[in-house]
Amino acid sequence: xxxxxxxxxxxxxxxxxxxxxxxxxxxxxxxxxxxxxxxxxxxxxxxxxxxxxxxxxxxxxxxxxxxxxxxxxxxxxxxxxxxxxxxxxxxxxxxxxxxxxxxxxxxxxxxxxxxxxxxxxxxxxxxxxxxxxxxxxxxxxxxxxxxxxxxxxxxxxxxxxxxxxxxxxxxxxxxxxxxxxxxxxxxxxxxxxxxxxxxxxxxxxxxxxxxxxxxxxxxxxxxxxxxxxxxxxxxxxxxxxxxxxxxxxxxxxxxxxxxxxxxxxxxxxxxxxxxxxxxxxxxxxxxxxxxxxxxxxxxxxxxxxxxxxxxxxxxxxxxxxxxxxxxxxxxxxxxxxxxxxxxxxxxxxxxxxxxxxxxxxxxxxxxxxxxxxxxxxxxxxxxxxxxxxxxxxxxxxxxxxxxxxxxxxxxxxxxxxxxxxxxxxxxxxxxxxxxxxxxxxxxxxxxxxxxxxxxxxxxxxxxxxxxxxxxxxxxxxxxxxxxxx
Amino acid sequence: xxxxxxxxxxxxxxxxxxxxxxxxxxxxxxxxxxxxxxxxxxxxxxxxxxxxxxxxxxxxxxxxxxxxxxxxxxxxxxxxxxxxxxxxxxxxxxxxxxxxxxxxxxxxxxxxxxxxxxxxxxxxxxxxxxxxxxxxxxxxxxxxxxxxxxxxxxxxxxxxxxxxxxxxxxxxxxxxxxxxxxxxxxxxxxxxxxxxxxxxxxxxxxxxxxxxxxxxxxxxxxxxxxxxxxxxxxxxxxxxxxxxxxxxxxxxxxxxxxxxxxxxxxxxxxxxxxxxxxxxxxxxxxxxxxxxxxxxxxxxxxxxxxxxxxxxxxxxxxxxxxxxxxxxxxxxxxxxxxxxxxxxxxxxxxxxxxxxxxxxxxxxxxxxxxxxxxxxxxxxxxxxxxxxxxxxxxxxxxxxxxxxxxxxxxxxxxxxxxxxxxxxxxxxxxxxxxxxxxxxxxxxxxxxxxxxxxxxx
Lengths: 485, 457
Fold this sequence. Notes:
Chain A is mainly α. Chain A has 22 helices and three strands. In chain B, the strands form four sheets. Chain B has a six-stranded parallel sheet, sandwiched between helices. In chain B, strands 14-13-12-15-16-17 form a six-stranded parallel sheet, with helices on both faces.
């Protein structure tokens, strides 16, 4: 009981901190006089008060949280924050149901980027800033922020990091203490975001667009201020800048930090994931470009390369921007892009999917099996980036892959039962569980998720949450073991 | 000379064996009384049981009047401490320590006078590894020795039927192949060693030792015999200190398979090595060897701690079709037993190490001493000092020098040049002279020859 109350206390603190994030849209609203000032003010006060009351009632319960409660805390936070974030949307947008709003904010915080809204171009600037800020904050995981701030308020951090940080190798410490690690990562994230904003402004976006799209890029979210997404700009320069920053965000931020600290670009080459990610993406871009050109989708190779690269990088990094209607491309291309969205980004980045480190483990394990057949006496530990990966991690990865597969299958069946066609159902689940964004079929890049029924939208919302928290974290709450003492 | 040896392991006991025959006072210290007893039974020396780093033990062993301390225990740290104590408390003139750890070796300051006072650090495992790497580099070679910081090399090859030299006298070399800058230092024929003369005719099966500049070795080998294809596949049995270093040194350029019996050691090895295939099994298991295609192996190295296992696996490998087999053999009796048999090269770790070690024991400007295979000869590298007045060698042609019978000058290293020891070559001051002698007893005489008169200083 005591521990559960501590969870509530932590939640309360989180909400109070979260309410601070309303300041940005408030400022935007004031500067632009877009008439949403009251709505945001209300939302901020409401969130802060609820948080305060929760904290007030439970402030005596300061026990250190166990791992079990860490999971509970993470899932509750990721379910609760989008709920509170829906307020401005519900207040400011006519005709938006809670289902829709919750999907939107969940999509923002999980950095998926699928939207139920239309008429994005006409939305008040503060609303757009709010949507994109959710992308940005979700990116680093509000948890990491909290790990840096909350210890000051008396809530231990390690259990949260274990629950939240993606990937199997969570112990590669950058600094002796977890708060320092979190702070370092957050600073790198901030620095690259600023660089992105500056670059986008330079290639021709307005300040609002530059800030919003930089937020969406760094979080690998994929929200845009325009219905047509990046196709609106029709600018190869903007597309190029976005490709560069999407790839940066798809790499482990710990590597970025190390490169900055040691002042050596060579460290990128030593990061096995980064090398694999970039190599896979580049090869695919070329391959798909040639394919589309050959199929006649685009008249010249260079046009084909432009559109293929941008959309492929966007999907592979689980960002979700689009500059063309790839729903209309020969099916091989978008299917390959969806496949890449499952396996490409590095652990420690802001993307989703199973993460490149697990992909590497799977491929290497297959290689080990082959070697074992040829050389039964061989002793061949798995090595990634020169260090040995113990067998228990390999097992954990295999377990994860099974759960991932079963979750995709279950959710797809759920959508099929509700009457959705196969391509839309399958691609929607994949796109949501990988936090990519647009799928195919009725939820393609030129469409949006608003066309789905409420039930279908909730399925997608669940997919986004489960994907972002890496399956185990959410599903463990449903096992009997969890609730037994 | 009074020598104190700490540690009666492989290196310690074989060095003791080597030195005791040269009228030195040897004392050996070890913590294992049994090992010392075995040593004392065989050799004329003094032994003492105790911890080699303890001052009381050192004093009892007579460190006060020791000329040279040889710290070759199993522990780097004990060796270093003993050297430090010897220097600070007892002023021992020469202190040599065996250091295995690459970490220490990378920081030479550790051995300086301010720190651990080690005059000369040796790593026998590393010396052995380097030696085997050289043997693999020249697949046709039976022994390779380096001189003068690797400027000159001495290589031993076996003359085969139909080779360019078989049936010809040695003088044929200089007249018929003048572009080949080499000199035959010694020949070992079935019965024993020969001192090569211009008229000596080479027979099939002779082992020829010749000396040349290191850069020319490849071309000389090409002339001397049909060049074997370069080695590509290497199989190593034994993942201990030597096996592991060897695999690491070779894995980039060769396909290496390493067989090790201990499972945990295998895991560690697999973690450290990148391109080596580590196999857990018994090197004497012929089924394992067959499974791993020992017949396709170019060089097979049996490097475990156990002589018998090494011999067995080497013989099995040879029978299974391996190219060249090398076995690590500690007992000198076994080495003699196996020469000329199926095992191509029987390596004695002590022999390989002792060469450079012994140079410190000798007087004068002896830089290195090595033994050729099968006792064919001894090779010395000495520096010639002085001038025509004070020295009996400087400023003279080789055929003018009063060399004792059974000694020949093989080559001179002057700066970066290697000059063959033909009869008309002139020795200059500071030349490194490579001399071959037919047996150890001659070594002293040659040393004396090179000593300068007192008046030089």
